[in-house]
Amino acid sequence: MNNKMKILYGFILVFTVAAPFLFPALNAQFATLWLMIIVALTWDMTGGQMGYNSLGNIFFYGTGMYVAAVVAIGLVYNVGDYTSAAGGGIYAFTKAQYLTGIFLGMFAAGLFCAVTAVMIGYVTFGLRGPYFAIGTLGVAIAAGELVSNWEWVGGGQGITLPVYPGDFDDQKILLYFLLAGIGVSLFIFLKWLYGSRYGIALNAIRDDEEKAEGMGIHTLRYKLVTWSMAAFFVGMAGAVAGFQAISFEPLETAYQTVNLGIFMVVCVLLGGKGTLWGPVIGAILFHVFKEVTWNLFLGWQWVALGGLIVVTVVYFQDGIMGYLKYTKPEWFGVRVDEQQPEPAE
Fold it and tell me: Fewer CB within 10 Å, N or C, the chain?
């Protein structure tokens, strides 16, 4: 790593730690930005690096919400009794119970989603191309419908978690650092993973799966492990997002296939598939674009989003990172020798 990159990483780390204190009014927006970075990076693990475009990663996000809520509530109260009253202002957590619940719930959500990804993957990875995308989307839609009819976890009314027993600003800072910690850990992990032989194997599957199998790569194992790792991080992020939302329900919040399920794909397409920094840059630009249009052009925000997608697909088919690699190869350590004019005869 050269000095410029060390300075860049150092600046990002310092800003990450200082941001909630320098801009306290934007803590919720910064936390959501880290959430977008996490879901974009995890989607690219399979969609960009491995070539399997999933529309069902939102399944792990919603499942993470519910698993964390059940764990946090179950440590203190009977889950069925609690959800039947939807909190009702009767139940409350002490600070110790709240913190224990959110940390245990977060890791339980990650582990549950990782195991579930392996189980689902044995079926869905038998599909390829658009069939895989549609299959995973079907899983997410089915999960939302099943949970909305499961009264033990609140059914269609969802779950209302107890409010943080302390200063509300302290809760915002806590949730911000949880999401930022997951995001930074994920980025560091992927930087190592993509530079290893494992990353080369993923790219081999993306380029030609049959040839990869012929070279001795156990493609199904790589696909299952990669999706499981992605599900682990998405599940933890979903768990934190559940505590951030306080009240959530299955179809519009947890398993929101038409919102966050699409947003994570747009972030990667905007930044550049199959790159480490592409999903991060795409998530930042998309989040800023979304906040501006949702606040200044309410009612036209979906039109603006559709326009962004069209512009990205037409003019930046390889995303911003792909465009920069083509126009500024020297920024990526690629030396381009200028063609010398032929001597006159």
Answer: C
Which residues, 6 or more positions from 202, have their beta carbon under 8 angstroms from its beta carbon?
45, 49, 50, 194, 222, 226
Asked whether residue 83 is assigned to any structural domain, the reply reads yes
**Helix, strand, coil percentages, rounded to 5, for the chain:** 75, 0, 25
Cβ neighbours of residue 271 closer than 8 Å, sequence gap 6 or more: 40, 277, 278, 279, 280, 281, 282, 283, 285, 319, 320, 321
Same domain, 226 and 240: yes
Q: Answer for the pair 245, 239: CB distance below 8 angstroms, yes or no.
A: no
Residue 222's pLDDT is 95
- Whether residues 116 and 236 share a domain: the answer is yes
Are residues 152 and 217 located together in one domain of the fold? yes
Half-sphere exposure of 228 (CA within 13 A, CB side): 16
Number of domains in the chain: 2
Residue 223 and residue 324 in one domain: no
CA distance 310 to 304: 10
Average pLDDT over residues 289-299: 82
Averaged pLDDT for residues 98-113: 95
Please say if the pLDDT value at position 9 is more than 90.
Answer: no
**Which amino acid belongs to residue 69?**
A
CA distances from 12 to 32, 185, 273, 300 (A): 17, 13, 22, 33
Q: Dump pLDDT digits (tens) for 278-289.
A: 999 999 999 998
Q: What pLDDT band is residue 308 in, cutting at 50, 70 and 90?
A: confident
Tokens representing 121 are: 């993957």
The span from the CA of 232 to the CA of 137, in Å, is 18
